[in-house]
Inverse folding.
């Protein structure tokens, strides 16, 4: 479920997880909690924060799309915890103007993950 192999493998896996936890996940924070990014209390100010977040979300979605590439997985060409983590967060993009469906490798990854029996079970239990 993780890197395996030697130090270079572990470094690359850690780099991937650092992107997911330090860049990808935080890109969505302003969308969900705009009040944390402005002192204004108005709906217009909160909408402006969300709008500003969409550009950053697009950048991290593009990076993730390229990271997945033809391999079909977030980390190299094998299933790992990075796939599960990215799957959950990429689903949030349906609340943005540009969902994961507009990134070809990410769309294929999401489709494949959605068809997995364990993922289906978890999604069903989450309803």
């Amino acid at each position: 479920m993780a890197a395996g192999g030697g130090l270079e493998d572990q470094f690359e896996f850690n780099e991937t997880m650092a992107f997911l936890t330090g860049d990808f996940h935080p890109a969505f924070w302003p969308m969900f909690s705009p009040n944390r990014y402005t002192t204004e209390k108005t709906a217009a100010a909160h909408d402006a924060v969300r709008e500003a977040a969409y550009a950053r979300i697009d950048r991290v979605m593009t990076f993730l799309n390229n990271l997945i590439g033809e391999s079909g997985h977030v980390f190299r060409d094998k299933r790992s915890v990075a796939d599960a983590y990215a799957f959950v967060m990429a689903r949030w993009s349906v609340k943005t103007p540009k969902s994961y469906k507009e990134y070809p490798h990410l769309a294929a990854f999401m489709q494949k993950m959605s068809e997995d029996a364990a993922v289906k079970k978890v999604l069903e239990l989450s309803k």
